[in-house]
Specification:
Blueprint (H helix, E strand, L loop, with lengths): L5 E4 L6 H11 L5 E4 L5 E2 L2 E4 L11 E4 L6 H11 L3 E3 L11 H15 L2 E3 L5 E3 L17 E9 L2 H8 L6 E7 L8 H10 L2
Helix pairs in contact: 2-3
Length: 194
Amino acid sequence: MFPRSIVVVGASDRTYGQAEAVRNALRGGIPAWGVNPKRDEVLGLPCVPRIAELREVPELAVLLVGHTRVEEALEEAAEAGVRAFVLPGLGNEAGAEGPPIAARIAARAAELEAALVGPNCMGIALPGPQTSSWIGTVPDTFLEGQVAVASHSGSIAEALVAVGPRVGFRCVASLGAEAARDVADVCGFFAEDA
């Protein structure tokens, strides 16, 4: 859950969520890259046209591409060796096409024995200088502590991240539709985390 390297597929600064995902990937000082065929960098994040062009295999891929390209993006990352994914999309913006795509992605993640958070989630927020795979703002008031949260709801998770310095968090995970990993999986991880 706490990656040692990260790639943001579809890295861009065009929308709030994309820009925040890039900023959060850069926060922790771990190797971080973007995939964007039209740009060499986004907000200081170095980018390559395809994930296969990276010199090392990222541990986690945040898939910020639209629903018509997400299966291809997952497959390219899997071919490169990535086995952990955060999929914020495939919510209402995908319309009727979303559920069948999500089902195929869940089946493919199971074949790969890959961890996949989402679809339709906010990702995983980590306090302090750690890298987050969160698509929203991680404020300075989101302090480190012993509380770990696994939430289906992105809105509830986002409210907890924004609650301020009254509570210290280890992690807030927004799991969305839980296609490949669910609250029980994350709670199992939390139970083993001292």
